[in-house]
Hints:
A: Rossmann fold, Rossmann fold, 15 helices, globular, B: alpha+beta, 4-stranded antiparallel beta sheet, 2 helices
Amino acid sequence: xxxxxxxxxxxxxxxxxxxxxxxxxxxxxxxxVAYDHDGIQSRISRERIESGPRxxxxxxxxxxxxxxxxxxxxxxxxxxxxxxxxxxxxxxxELWIKNDTxxxxxxxxxxxxxxxxxxxxxxxFQTLACxxxxxxxxxxxxxxxxxxxxxxxxxxxxxEAGKVLGSAVYxxxxxxxxxxxxxxxxLCAELADNRSWAxxxxxMRAYYAEGSRTLAFEVAEQLxxxxxxxxxxxxxxxxxxxxxxxxxxxxxxxxxxxxxxVRMIGAQxxxxxxxxxxxxxxxxxxxxxxxxTIAKSLAIGNPADGYYALKTMKRTDGGATAVTDAEVxxxxxLLAECEGVFAETAGGVTIAGxxxxxxxxxxxxxxPTVAFITGGGLKTADAVVEHVTQPIPVEGTLQSFEDAFxxxxxxxxxxx
Amino acid sequence: xxxxxxxxxxxxxAVTEPLIYLLGHEFAVVTNIRMADVERDFGWVMLELDGExxxxxxxxxxxxxxxxxxDPVAGDVVEG
Lengths: 416, 80
């Protein structure tokens, strides 16, 4: 039985029932799930969590879903890798990589969609929906298939075929909207009000966002029940960033980890950096932008939770970074070459943002730091295909190989 | 009748023009402001519009033509 009790407005604190609502009827502030903290406190323990499944559902006491409705694709419990080689390259003492490329549809979106789809099932919905250019649509389609629900996915009409495939294989209804990105936004916002569909990040947004907290829960547990001192995470809407911090705070509140401060650093691409721009201009008024970056999964020009991300940075003595597309590619390569993890462009933003934060002295190279890698590299292969090692062409003879190998720059150090 | 919840973002000269008043004057829609933050050269307003569906569309098209950005109150809902 879930400990969720209501939805509460983050602005005026008015409470609403646990329905498919996303904004406060009174002030239009965003709604957030509220919990019975005493009930959680009386039940939760390290031992109880450790005896749970190796997925996000080991934290079900902290999620807004009853057991009977869980849609389980075995999401979460992804590796936390100690990244000593990357740390050495960056001049850091203790760096960890939370590798969320290992989720069922290869991105962290599986966490949020797992919670939203489960809650949708509990609320009696038959159809999951979303508007997406990639990861979110993949995850919604996969979860709907797993749950035996219908899926309807809205995409811009000019989305590349390769990106559509990652959803199409699960057989959802795919609607290609002939219009601008803003037209898709407006259409889906209207449909969420008019149709009996669970739009995971619109009318189910309050539940959806809760799934991101499991990233913090896992990291704290995997670090041996402690929080890192510093975090670098990508920012699109800003929701993931704020919820990671909230997750650490909750573990501290329930006595599962010590109360230590966690400095939160957000990473954006320069071509879509409304939150970082506001941070640098020392304002909480975020000016929407038209995205123009290879980091498509972070391309949210009008971020719903940007204001709260800025508050999180301020509260944690954190900050924000913005990196060029060239730096994004370099970040992807650096992570792959040093640690064997192939990230999508959002991961390149995180690694490049980490590097920038070190240069700008926004983080301390001697403090334990976790960088969040939120999606797999094959999703954005086009971004790096021109920038990686090329094959050495040889004939099928030893001499041909020896000649070519001797001249190949990447043969250095191979030995033997 | 329909209800639409939207966010207007104003920049530059649009900040000081009485555009919300004019919207209610020129179109058969009722405007109901719920939250706002306005600075010297930038501001946003979240409001509810009541009226016929097509009339709301015309009103939103008109104000967008005045340089005001119109978004759903939930921000961008198209995600990567």
